[in-house]
Amino acid sequence: MLTKASALVTTKWLHNVLKSGVPKDIRILDSSFHLPSSNRNGRLEYEEKHIPGASYFDIDECCDKSSPYGHMLPDTKHFEQYAGNLGIDLSTHVVVYDNSVNYGFFSAPRIWWMFRVFGHETVSVLDGGFMKWCSEGLPTTSEVVHVPKTIFHGLYHPHLVKSYEDIANNLKDNSFQLMDARGEGRFMGTKPEPREGIEPGHIPDSKNLCYQDIVDKESGVMLDVKEIKKLFNETGIDLSKPLVSTCGSGVTACCTAFAAYLCGKEDVSVYDGSWTEWYQRSTPDMRFCPSDKKDSK
Length: 297
Known about the structure:
- This protein is an alpha/beta fold.
- Helix content is 31%, strand content 11%.
- It is built from eleven helices and ten strands.
- The protein has helices at residues 11-17, 42-48, 76-85, 108-117, 129-135, 164-173, 184-188, 225-235, 253-262, 274-281, 290-296; strands at 8-9, 26-30, 54-56, 93-97, 123-126, 161-162, 177-180, 207-208, 243-246, 269-271.
- The strands form two sheets. The protein has a five-stranded parallel β-sheet.
- Strand 7, helix 7 and strand 8 form a beta-alpha-beta unit.
- Helix 4 crosses helix 9.
- The termini are far apart.
- Residues 1-5 have low confidence and may be disordered.
Protein backbone atom coordinates (compact mmCIF):
# COMPACT_ATOMS: atom_id res chain seq x y z
CA MET A 1 0.00 0.00 0.00
CA LEU A 2 1.29 3.44 -0.90
CA THR A 3 1.86 6.08 1.72
CA LYS A 4 0.19 9.48 1.47
CA ALA A 5 3.41 11.00 0.11
CA SER A 6 3.72 8.46 -2.67
CA ALA A 7 0.26 9.30 -4.03
CA LEU A 8 2.22 12.08 -5.70
CA VAL A 9 5.40 10.90 -7.45
CA THR A 10 8.15 12.94 -9.07
CA THR A 11 9.52 12.85 -12.59
CA LYS A 12 12.90 11.91 -11.11
CA TRP A 13 11.38 8.90 -9.36
CA LEU A 14 9.57 7.71 -12.49
CA HIS A 15 12.62 8.21 -14.69
CA ASN A 16 14.70 6.08 -12.31
CA VAL A 17 12.00 3.39 -12.29
CA LEU A 18 12.02 3.24 -16.11
CA LYS A 19 15.80 3.05 -16.63
CA SER A 20 15.61 -0.72 -17.15
CA GLY A 21 12.16 -0.74 -18.75
CA VAL A 22 8.71 -0.71 -17.18
CA PRO A 23 8.57 -3.06 -14.14
CA LYS A 24 5.90 -5.75 -14.33
CA ASP A 25 4.05 -4.37 -11.32
CA ILE A 26 3.77 -0.81 -12.70
CA ARG A 27 1.43 0.56 -15.37
CA ILE A 28 1.80 4.11 -16.63
CA LEU A 29 -1.33 5.78 -17.96
CA ASP A 30 -1.55 8.87 -20.13
CA SER A 31 -5.00 10.22 -19.26
CA SER A 32 -4.86 13.43 -21.29
CA PHE A 33 -8.26 15.02 -21.76
CA HIS A 34 -9.10 18.52 -22.96
CA LEU A 35 -12.14 20.75 -22.81
CA PRO A 36 -14.31 20.93 -25.95
CA SER A 37 -13.22 24.53 -26.58
CA SER A 38 -9.49 23.64 -26.68
CA ASN A 39 -9.48 21.97 -30.13
CA ARG A 40 -7.10 19.34 -28.77
CA ASN A 41 -7.37 15.55 -28.86
CA GLY A 42 -5.75 13.64 -26.02
CA ARG A 43 -5.58 10.31 -27.80
CA LEU A 44 -3.98 11.73 -30.95
CA GLU A 45 -1.43 13.60 -28.86
CA TYR A 46 -0.65 10.40 -26.96
CA GLU A 47 -0.03 8.59 -30.26
CA GLU A 48 2.38 11.33 -31.29
CA LYS A 49 4.38 11.47 -28.05
CA HIS A 50 4.16 9.98 -24.56
CA ILE A 51 6.24 8.58 -21.70
CA PRO A 52 7.81 5.24 -22.71
CA GLY A 53 5.66 2.30 -21.67
CA ALA A 54 2.53 4.40 -21.15
CA SER A 55 -0.91 3.25 -22.25
CA TYR A 56 -3.78 5.62 -22.98
CA PHE A 57 -6.72 5.89 -20.56
CA ASP A 58 -9.70 7.48 -22.29
CA ILE A 59 -12.28 8.92 -19.88
CA ASP A 60 -14.73 9.23 -22.76
CA GLU A 61 -14.50 5.47 -23.29
CA CYS A 62 -14.34 4.26 -19.70
CA CYS A 63 -17.65 5.85 -18.78
CA ASP A 64 -21.40 5.36 -18.65
CA LYS A 65 -22.32 5.64 -22.33
CA SER A 66 -26.03 5.66 -21.49
CA SER A 67 -25.77 8.91 -19.52
CA PRO A 68 -26.70 12.21 -21.19
CA TYR A 69 -23.72 13.77 -19.38
CA GLY A 70 -20.14 13.36 -20.51
CA HIS A 71 -17.67 10.83 -19.01
CA MET A 72 -19.83 9.84 -16.05
CA LEU A 73 -18.54 6.93 -13.99
CA PRO A 74 -19.05 3.49 -15.55
CA ASP A 75 -20.43 0.60 -13.55
CA THR A 76 -18.06 -1.75 -11.77
CA LYS A 77 -18.11 -4.41 -14.50
CA HIS A 78 -17.19 -1.87 -17.20
CA PHE A 79 -14.33 -0.48 -15.13
CA GLU A 80 -13.05 -3.96 -14.31
CA GLN A 81 -12.91 -4.84 -17.99
CA TYR A 82 -11.29 -1.55 -18.98
CA ALA A 83 -8.61 -1.77 -16.28
CA GLY A 84 -7.98 -5.45 -17.01
CA ASN A 85 -7.50 -4.70 -20.70
CA LEU A 86 -4.76 -2.27 -19.69
CA GLY A 87 -2.97 -5.05 -17.83
CA ILE A 88 -3.95 -3.74 -14.40
CA ASP A 89 -4.89 -5.95 -11.46
CA LEU A 90 -4.98 -5.34 -7.72
CA SER A 91 -1.20 -5.85 -7.42
CA THR A 92 -0.41 -3.11 -9.96
CA HIS A 93 0.99 0.28 -9.03
CA VAL A 94 -0.73 2.69 -11.41
CA VAL A 95 1.05 5.95 -12.28
CA VAL A 96 -1.12 8.44 -14.13
CA TYR A 97 -0.31 11.73 -15.86
CA ASP A 98 -1.70 14.11 -18.47
CA ASN A 99 -0.30 16.66 -20.90
CA SER A 100 -1.89 19.88 -19.69
CA VAL A 101 0.48 22.65 -20.76
CA ASN A 102 -0.39 25.16 -18.06
CA TYR A 103 -0.88 23.56 -14.68
CA GLY A 104 1.06 20.29 -14.49
CA PHE A 105 -2.13 18.26 -14.37
CA PHE A 106 -5.77 18.50 -15.37
CA SER A 107 -7.38 15.09 -15.91
CA ALA A 108 -4.88 12.76 -14.19
CA PRO A 109 -6.52 13.12 -10.75
CA ARG A 110 -9.81 12.02 -12.33
CA ILE A 111 -8.29 8.60 -13.07
CA TRP A 112 -6.70 8.55 -9.59
CA TRP A 113 -10.18 9.08 -8.14
CA MET A 114 -11.81 6.51 -10.43
CA PHE A 115 -9.41 3.79 -9.33
CA ARG A 116 -10.10 4.64 -5.68
CA VAL A 117 -13.86 4.57 -6.31
CA PHE A 118 -13.44 0.99 -7.54
CA GLY A 119 -11.29 -0.08 -4.62
CA HIS A 120 -7.75 0.35 -5.94
CA GLU A 121 -5.59 2.56 -3.70
CA THR A 122 -2.19 1.86 -5.25
CA VAL A 123 -2.35 4.74 -7.70
CA SER A 124 -0.14 7.82 -8.03
CA VAL A 125 -0.26 11.11 -9.92
CA LEU A 126 2.91 12.35 -11.64
CA ASP A 127 3.79 15.73 -10.16
CA GLY A 128 4.12 18.32 -12.92
CA GLY A 129 2.80 15.88 -15.49
CA PHE A 130 4.03 15.49 -19.05
CA MET A 131 4.84 19.19 -19.19
CA LYS A 132 7.54 18.80 -16.53
CA TRP A 133 8.72 15.49 -17.99
CA CYS A 134 9.37 17.13 -21.37
CA SER A 135 10.86 20.31 -19.88
CA GLU A 136 13.52 18.16 -18.23
CA GLY A 137 14.43 16.52 -21.52
CA LEU A 138 13.35 13.07 -20.35
CA PRO A 139 12.69 10.41 -23.01
CA THR A 140 9.46 10.21 -24.98
CA THR A 141 8.21 7.85 -27.67
CA SER A 142 5.42 7.37 -30.20
CA GLU A 143 5.49 3.58 -29.75
CA VAL A 144 2.14 2.26 -28.56
CA VAL A 145 2.61 -0.57 -26.10
CA HIS A 146 0.44 -3.70 -26.05
CA VAL A 147 0.27 -5.23 -22.59
CA PRO A 148 -1.21 -8.62 -21.70
CA LYS A 149 -4.78 -8.45 -20.44
CA THR A 150 -5.43 -9.44 -16.85
CA ILE A 151 -8.31 -9.56 -14.39
CA PHE A 152 -9.16 -6.56 -12.24
CA HIS A 153 -11.53 -7.15 -9.33
CA GLY A 154 -13.26 -3.91 -8.40
CA LEU A 155 -15.03 -3.01 -5.18
CA TYR A 156 -17.26 0.04 -5.53
CA HIS A 157 -16.93 2.68 -2.80
CA PRO A 158 -20.15 4.74 -2.93
CA HIS A 159 -18.99 7.18 -0.24
CA LEU A 160 -16.59 8.75 -2.76
CA VAL A 161 -19.39 9.64 -5.22
CA LYS A 162 -22.27 12.10 -4.94
CA SER A 163 -25.32 12.37 -7.18
CA TYR A 164 -27.63 15.20 -8.17
CA GLU A 165 -30.07 14.06 -5.51
CA ASP A 166 -27.37 14.15 -2.82
CA ILE A 167 -26.51 17.75 -3.70
CA ALA A 168 -30.17 18.78 -3.86
CA ASN A 169 -30.81 17.28 -0.41
CA ASN A 170 -27.77 19.10 0.94
CA LEU A 171 -29.36 22.45 0.07
CA LYS A 172 -31.89 21.62 2.79
CA ASP A 173 -29.91 19.72 5.43
CA ASN A 174 -26.41 21.17 4.91
CA SER A 175 -24.74 17.88 5.80
CA PHE A 176 -21.52 18.56 3.90
CA GLN A 177 -19.40 21.40 2.49
CA LEU A 178 -19.28 21.85 -1.27
CA MET A 179 -16.22 23.20 -3.10
CA ASP A 180 -16.10 24.15 -6.77
CA ALA A 181 -12.80 23.74 -8.67
CA ARG A 182 -13.62 25.98 -11.65
CA GLY A 183 -12.14 29.44 -12.20
CA GLU A 184 -13.71 32.41 -10.43
CA GLY A 185 -15.24 33.80 -13.64
CA ARG A 186 -17.20 30.64 -14.40
CA PHE A 187 -18.12 30.25 -10.73
CA MET A 188 -19.44 33.82 -10.47
CA GLY A 189 -21.08 33.78 -13.90
CA THR A 190 -18.88 36.43 -15.50
CA LYS A 191 -17.04 34.12 -17.93
CA PRO A 192 -18.63 31.53 -20.25
CA GLU A 193 -18.75 27.79 -19.72
CA PRO A 194 -16.87 25.73 -22.33
CA ARG A 195 -19.92 23.58 -23.12
CA GLU A 196 -22.68 24.74 -25.44
CA GLY A 197 -26.01 25.37 -23.74
CA ILE A 198 -24.54 25.62 -20.23
CA GLU A 199 -24.52 29.03 -18.56
CA PRO A 200 -21.97 29.90 -15.85
CA GLY A 201 -22.78 30.13 -12.16
CA HIS A 202 -22.64 27.90 -9.12
CA ILE A 203 -24.54 25.79 -6.62
CA PRO A 204 -25.68 27.86 -3.61
CA ASP A 205 -23.38 27.83 -0.55
CA SER A 206 -20.48 26.26 -2.48
CA LYS A 207 -16.95 27.60 -1.97
CA ASN A 208 -14.66 28.40 -4.90
CA LEU A 209 -11.17 26.85 -4.80
CA CYS A 210 -9.81 26.82 -8.34
CA TYR A 211 -7.72 23.76 -9.19
CA GLN A 212 -5.15 26.07 -10.82
CA ASP A 213 -4.35 27.61 -7.42
CA ILE A 214 -3.06 24.37 -5.90
CA VAL A 215 -0.03 24.24 -8.20
CA ASP A 216 3.04 26.44 -8.52
CA LYS A 217 2.51 28.70 -11.52
CA GLU A 218 6.14 28.50 -12.67
CA SER A 219 6.91 24.79 -12.34
CA GLY A 220 3.43 23.27 -12.57
CA VAL A 221 4.07 21.07 -9.53
CA MET A 222 1.78 20.84 -6.53
CA LEU A 223 2.19 23.33 -3.72
CA ASP A 224 3.45 21.82 -0.50
CA VAL A 225 0.89 20.57 2.00
CA LYS A 226 1.20 23.58 4.30
CA GLU A 227 0.38 25.95 1.46
CA ILE A 228 -2.53 23.78 0.30
CA LYS A 229 -3.97 23.66 3.82
CA LYS A 230 -3.70 27.45 3.94
CA LEU A 231 -5.68 27.71 0.70
CA PHE A 232 -8.44 25.50 2.09
CA ASN A 233 -8.55 27.59 5.24
CA GLU A 234 -8.64 30.90 3.35
CA THR A 235 -11.47 29.56 1.17
CA GLY A 236 -13.48 28.74 4.28
CA ILE A 237 -13.22 24.97 3.90
CA ASP A 238 -12.83 22.91 7.08
CA LEU A 239 -10.93 19.70 6.32
CA SER A 240 -12.19 18.13 9.55
CA LYS A 241 -15.77 18.15 8.23
CA PRO A 242 -17.52 16.29 5.36
CA LEU A 243 -16.50 17.69 1.98
CA VAL A 244 -17.68 17.24 -1.61
CA SER A 245 -15.89 18.54 -4.70
CA THR A 246 -17.53 19.73 -7.91
CA CYS A 247 -16.52 21.54 -11.13
CA GLY A 248 -17.83 21.68 -14.71
CA SER A 249 -18.13 17.98 -15.52
CA GLY A 250 -16.38 16.05 -12.74
CA VAL A 251 -12.76 16.29 -13.95
CA THR A 252 -11.01 19.13 -12.11
CA ALA A 253 -13.17 18.40 -9.05
CA CYS A 254 -10.83 15.44 -8.64
CA CYS A 255 -7.83 17.81 -8.54
CA THR A 256 -9.08 19.54 -5.41
CA ALA A 257 -10.18 16.20 -3.94
CA PHE A 258 -6.61 14.99 -4.56
CA ALA A 259 -5.21 18.10 -2.87
CA ALA A 260 -7.36 17.39 0.18
CA TYR A 261 -6.14 13.77 0.16
CA LEU A 262 -2.53 14.98 0.30
CA CYS A 263 -3.55 16.98 3.37
CA GLY A 264 -4.74 13.78 5.04
CA LYS A 265 -8.44 13.96 4.16
CA GLU A 266 -9.13 10.69 2.33
CA ASP A 267 -12.92 10.76 2.21
CA VAL A 268 -13.69 13.68 -0.12
CA SER A 269 -16.54 12.78 -2.46
CA VAL A 270 -16.92 14.05 -6.02
CA TYR A 271 -20.20 15.21 -7.54
CA ASP A 272 -19.84 13.33 -10.80
CA GLY A 273 -22.35 15.29 -12.89
CA SER A 274 -21.11 18.61 -11.48
CA TRP A 275 -22.30 21.96 -12.89
CA THR A 276 -23.22 20.55 -16.30
CA GLU A 277 -25.81 18.23 -14.79
CA TRP A 278 -26.84 20.70 -12.10
CA TYR A 279 -27.55 23.49 -14.58
CA GLN A 280 -29.65 21.22 -16.78
CA ARG A 281 -31.69 19.63 -13.98
CA SER A 282 -32.05 22.35 -11.34
CA THR A 283 -34.54 25.19 -11.22
CA PRO A 284 -33.38 28.84 -11.05
CA ASP A 285 -33.98 28.99 -7.29
CA MET A 286 -31.50 26.12 -6.83
CA ARG A 287 -28.52 27.92 -8.38
CA PHE A 288 -26.66 31.19 -8.56
CA CYS A 289 -26.72 31.99 -12.26
CA PRO A 290 -26.74 35.62 -13.53
CA SER A 291 -28.27 34.56 -16.86
CA ASP A 292 -31.42 33.47 -15.01
CA LYS A 293 -31.94 37.05 -13.85
CA LYS A 294 -31.41 38.39 -17.36
CA ASP A 295 -33.91 35.91 -18.77
CA SER A 296 -36.52 36.90 -16.18
CA LYS A 297 -36.47 40.58 -17.11
